[in-house]
Write a structure and sequence with these properties.
Helix content of chain C: over 70%
Largest sheet of chain A: 2 strands, antiparallel
Strand order of the largest sheet of chain A: 1-2
Distance between the termini of chain A: 109 Å
Largest sheet of chain C: none
Strand content of chain C: under 5%
Radius of gyration of chain C: 24 Å
Strand content of chain A: under 5%
Order of helices and strands of chain C: HHHHHHH
Number of strands of chain C: 0
Helix content of chain A: over 70%
Chains: A mainly alpha, B mainly alpha, C mainly alpha
Oligomer: heterotrimer
Radius of gyration of chain A: 35 Å
Number of strands of chain A: 2
CATH architecture of the domain at 1-75 in chain C: Up-down Bundle
CATH topology of the domain at 1-75 in chain C: Four Helix Bundle (Hemerythrin (Met), subunit A)
Largest interface: B-C, 72 and 86 residues
CATH class of the domain at 1-75 in chain C: Mainly Alpha
């Protein structure tokens, strides 16, 4: 079964339909909403598989289906669908991971009163995300991009009665909007330069070689588009929203803020990769390296289960950007795909833990869950090892290896490569810490003490994701780089990565060993006990625990600047503009008064006099019109005589 | 003084016309006013016949035809006029023309 | 010539009498006589068909209609014998009529009219019929329509309304201002 590109729109349309159905369903119809959403996404998944089959028939082709949205004066706004291996693989990934998370959500959100809406929002998100992926027009992509942002806002703030959730939703929305502004400017610039926003259009699209060759100012355009990716993918300096977004329900964190949406930025950069000039790529590479290192560092000192995972997401997204920056977008997509699976697995595992532990998220208060939650533990451990990059068996290792390999081969600088290596150690370290704190030892809190394994709706997706996490590595190994060749037919597998691989394995072992040495050997006894790392380096730990004070920094700089500006604007408003407005109002009133006087005294009087005189004349005529037939007849006869005399006297003849 | 037949006829019609006019002017009974108008119309007919009789081209029966039409119209006028008289009577219980001024402005 | 003068005198006399008499029935009868005189004039002038038409329409039909109208509009109480301004109005009418007559006579006498006493032309009925159905066919049709409309209009005008609207209007008009409409006369 294959899906033609003309029918590609069905993939996002189905979840959208499910969202509509869910919206229209009566309140509390949780089952209807959930089953519609799951059914729609299942169908979308099957269609995506069909699309993948179509795309794999000729991996180098970019199948498009363009149509005119509406005509402008000089041209037309055209949209379209694009089908190539990148699109198809992303679709399959999003629908599959999404489907598993939907199923997980039926268990996780079972007791929530607004679960119906939750599925609505999830469907909306899926529709927007799929639309973003299949878009062949940057305009359509941008629209879906914003829709994704909206869905993310709605879902982060799903528990809006919690002030933190509401604030986090706001923060996420505003922070990503800063990047989106850059993206929008980039798109406008691009449209101005090329006259189209279609990606591929039979030689006329922006990514077609002919147009690319004639494009000027491309570095700026690429960087502006990258701004959007920075916002959406939580890159340094705009990464601050992503950890806060963990206030949303855990399936949301898994789906949106780990697996799919945050990857949209990476996807976008991979999509417009031909547009990026070497200068732009340098910026991207360094941004990615900083983000990877920064995220990993902060993750080491967090104590909230989901926050640790969030910072690890930031770090991994940094890896992907790093890969883009060093020119290997296929490695980025490979890491994106594997990361989507194992991070979704980790988040769902965390969700499972949190659900079982009665919404206890602090790792210091958990512990000892290895026993009661065997499935969760095993799957979580698989995810952890994939993330940490434990060799050979896990997909994370291969994709990370591909990224490091690409960074190593970058000609401009080796700094991003070393940053990546440090992040490898740190990743292994904090993941070990996490697992040791949560699953080993003995329960240190009420929630953990009474935890028990969850239902199949939650464990089944975990199992499937774990299986994928292991299997997915096989498609991109250096010996059989199927994925890379599919995505980029010109991909050359460079031999000689054995030394690098060995280094990386050593580093992972180092990280794991350090983690185990600090946390596993001497397990935490009380939840209030100090962190071993804090004992070693208290100031650094506190700095990292405060997330390197980015929020404080932003509050002190941008926040205060904004406050000052607001105060200035307020003062201006109150005293200057208000005065001007008042003055204008006075002027208006004065003019009005003058007008009114002129009206009443001049115009009205004139009109009144005119109409009065008309009335008087009419009355006079009316009086002359007596209704007396005799009078009329008399007048006629009299008039006749007079006329005859007039003719005679005047000599009319 | 010697009057031709045509002049005599015209004098006759003028006299008839002025008789009708005076009646229409002086009488207050609407029926009589109407009859005065009718007389004036007849005087006009007399004129038509006189000019046809003594005119330059008596073979063309134009005058006669015109009179025939005038009689038809006069009949219609009389019918409508008398109907109006009856309507007036029904409204004001008499047929005094001076009082029938309700339609004035 | 003499015949003409005689006919004119009879016609004018009966018409004048009809206009002067106070009794409407008499007026109507005398007017019929006057119309008959006119018919005689048409005969004298050689327009026989017009004479017949005059007899049929005026002497026969209109006089009957006038009589009916007179009988139908008998005032409930006798009209005032001499309305206050009748005399003055008669005087005005006399002066106006005289002036018009003077103008006419002056015009007739001073005009150079052809004085030929040609033999009376004869217009056969057939010729008239051809004229009417030929050159004047359109006019004939219109006159037919006019007569029909006039007939219908007369019927509508003269027909009795089931509810005498005019009477109630008269009541309202005759009422002193400020009197409520409903309590007309039968309030205790």
């Amino acid at each position: 079964m294959s899906l033609s590109v003309q029918l590609l729109w069905l993939i996002p349309a189905l979840p959208l339909l499910a969202a509509v159905v869910g919206t229209l369903a009566p309140r509390g119809e949780f089952k209807l909403s959930a089953s519609t959403a799951i059914a729609a996404l299942t169908l979308s998944f099957l269609l995506s598989c069909g699309a993948l089959i179509t795309a794999l028939a000729d991996p180098s082709a970019h199948l498009t289906s363009n149509f005119t949205w509406f005509d402008l004066g000089h041209g037309a706004v055209r949209l379209g669908w694009l089908l190539d291996p990148l699109t198809a693989l992303m679709c399959v990934m999003v629908t599959f991971v999404g489907l598993l998370i939907f199923v997980f959500s039926t268990g996780y959100m079972r007791d929530d009163a607004n679960a119906k809406q939750f599925f609505c929002f999830l469907s909306l998100f899926a529709a927007a995300m799929l639309g973003l992926i299949i878009a062949n027009s940057l305009l359509l992509l941008f629209v879906c991009w914003e829709l994704v942002g909206l869905a993310s806002y709605l879902l982060i703030g799903f528990w809006f009665h919690k002030p933190e959730a509401a604030a986090a939703a706001k923060k996420a929305f505003i922070t990503t909007r800063i990047g989106d502004l850059g993206l929008l400017l980039g798109l406008l610039w691009l449209y101005d330069s090329t006259g189209t926003l279609l990606l591929y259009d039979e030689g006329q699209g922006v990514l077609d070689p002919v147009v690319l060759a004639g494009l000027g100012g491309s570095t700026a355009i690429g960087l502006l588009i990258f701004c959007g990716a920075v916002g959406k993918s939580g890159q340094f300096p705009l990464h601050v929203w992503l950890p806060d977004a963990m206030e949303g329900p855990t399936p949301v964190s898994a789906l949106i803020h780990a697996a799919t949406m945050v990857a949209a930025g990476v996807f976008l950069m991979a999509r417009v990769f031909p547009l990026l000039t070497p200068d732009a790529l340098i910026v991207i590479a360094f941004t990615g390296a900083i983000t990877a290192l920064l995220g990993a560092l902060i993750a080491c000192a967090q104590s909230d289960l989901k926050r640790i995972l969030a910072f690890s997401t930031v770090s991994q997204l940094g890896y992907m950007m790093l890969a883009i920056g060093v020119g290997s977008w296929v490695a980025a997509i490979f890491h994106l795909l594997t990361h989507a699976f194992f991070k979704a697995l980790l988040f769902l595992g965390a969700g499972s833990v949190i659900h079982a532990a009665h919404h206890e998220q602090d790792i210091r208060a958990l512990g000892g869950l290895r026993g009661p939650m065997k499935t969760t533990f095993v799957t979580f451990a698989i995810g952890m090892m994939a993330l940490a990059g434990v060799p050979f068996l896990f997909s994370g290792f291969w994709s990370k290896e591909a990224v490091l390999h690409a960074a190593h081969g970058w000609g401009f600088s080796q700094i991003p490569f070393y940053a990546g290596l440090v992040a490898v150690v740190l990743t292994a370290f904090y993941m070990t810490r996490l697992v040791a704190e949560v699953f080993f030892g003995h329960p240190r809190g009420n929630g953990a003490a009474h935890a028990h394994e969850n239902t199949a709706a939650m464990t089944l997706p975990l199992g499937l994701l774990a299986a994928c996490t292991i299997l997915l590595g096989a498609i991109g190994t250096p010996w059989w780089p199927w994925l890379q060749r599919t995505l980029d037919p010109e991909f050359l597998s460079e031999p000689g990565g054995a030394g690098l691989m060995a280094t990386s394995i050593v580093l992972v072992a180092l990280g794991l060993g350090a983690g185990w040495a600090l946390y596993g050997r001497k397990l935490r006894q009380k939840s209030a006990a100090a962190d071993p790392l804090a004992v070693i380096a208290p100031r650094a730990f506190a700095f990292l625990a405060a997330r390197m004070k980015f929020d404080k920094l932003y509050a002190a700089t941008f926040g205060r600047l904004s406050d000052t500006l607001a105060a200035c604007a307020d003062a201006l408003d109150r005293h200057v503009w208000d005065g001007v407005v008042r003055l204008l109002a006075r002027l208006g009133r004065f003019t009005g008064l003058v007008n009114r006087e002129a009206d009443e005294e001049g115009l009205n009087a004139g009109f009144d006099a005119t109409s009065e005189s008309i009335r008087a004349t009419a009355k006079a005529y009316s009086r002359a019109h007596t209704g007396d037939a005799h009078g009329y007849l008399l007048m006629i006869a009299f008039g006749f005589v007079v006329l005859v005399f007039a003719v005679l006297v005047g000599g009319g003849r | 003084m010697s009057l031709s037949s045509l002049q005599l006829c015209l004098l006759f019609s003028s006299a008839l016309f002025c008789l009708g006019l005076m009646a229409a002017l002086s009488r207050s009974n609407t029926i009589l006013v109407l009859l005065g108008v009718e007389l004036m119309l007849n005087a006009a007919n007399v004129n038509f016949i006189a000019f046809w009789r003594y005119g330059p081209n008596p073979e063309a029966a134009t005058g006669v035809v015109f009179v025939l039409f005038a009689i038809a119209v006069a009949a219609a006028e009389a019918a409508v006029g008398l109907a109006l008289v009856i309507a007036i009577y029904r409204h004001q219980k008499n047929i005094r023309l001076q009082e029938a001024t309700r339609l004035k402005g | 010539m003499m015949a003409l003068i005689l006919i004119a005198l009879v016609t004018l006399a009966s018409a004048a009498a009809a206009m002067l008499l106070r009794n409407l029935i008499h007026s109507a009868l005398l007017l019929t006589a006057s119309w008959a005189g006119l018919a005689a004039f048409y005969l004298w002038a050689g327009a026989e068909f017009v004479a017949f038409a005059q007899v049929l329409v005026y002497v026969g039909a209109i006089s009957m209609v006038v009589l009916f109208a007179v009988l139908l509009t008998r005032p409930p109480q006798p009209m005032p014998v001499t309305p206050p301004n009748t005399l003055g109005r008669a005087l005005v009418a006399l002066i106006t009529g005289g002036a018009v007559l003077g103008v006419f006579i002056g015009a007739i006498v001073s005009s150079p009219l052809p004085a030929t006493a040609a033999p009376a032309p004869t217009v056969s009925v057939k010729q008239l019929g051809l004229e009417l159905a030929g050159r004047h066919a359109g006019a004939l049709l219109i006159v037919g329509a006019l007569l029909t409309v006039a007939l219908l209009g007369a019927v509508v005008l003269a027909a009795t309304d089931r509810e005498p609207v005019g009477a109630s209007l008269d009541d309202v008009r005759g009422r002193p201002p400020g009197t409520p409409l409903q309590k007309s006369g039968d309030a205790p």
